[in-house]
């Protein structure tokens, strides 16, 4: 059932769907979505001390590197295949680029 759900997403396909499920197992093994993100290592490190909280924090990259690879590649494929996601990605990319230039 989880395979069919992943395959129904435009841009996923059998390679990404199989890879994600091979590395993840069942989503029912995780209590919340953020637990899956932490397991894959796609969470951002917190850098804070006292009242200071850094804005520029790198991705953790601890966790299952193969699952992280499949999720990031699949997200890129979705962006290429679904115009709404491509527009949202371009909007967010422009916001970050503008902030970096200022």
Automatic annotation (TrEMBL):
Q: Extract the coiled-coil ranges from the record.
A: none
Family matches, as Pfam families: Transposase_20 (PF02371)
Q: Which InterPro entries match?
A: Transpos_IS110, Transposase_20
Organism's domain of life? Bacteria
Domain called Transposase IS116/IS110/IS902 C-terminal: residue spans: 4-90
Q: What is this protein called?
A: Transposase
Species whose genome carries this gene:
Clostridium algifaecis
Q: What does the organism's lineage look like at the top? A: Bacteria, Bacillati, Bacillota, Clostridia, Eubacteriales
């Amino acid at each position: 059932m989880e395979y069919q759900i992943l395959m129904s997403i435009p841009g996923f396909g059998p390679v990404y769907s199989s890879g994600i499920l091979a590395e993840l197992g069942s989503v029912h093994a995780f209590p919340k979505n953020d637990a899956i993100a932490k397991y894959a290592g796609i969470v951002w490190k917190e850098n804070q001390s006292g009242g200071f909280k850094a804005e520029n924090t790198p991705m953790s990259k601890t966790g299952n590197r193969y699952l992280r690879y499949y999720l990031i590649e699949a997200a890129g494929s979705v962006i290429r295949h679904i115009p709404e996601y491509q527009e949202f990605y371009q909007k967010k990319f422009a916001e970050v680029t503008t902030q970096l230039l200022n």
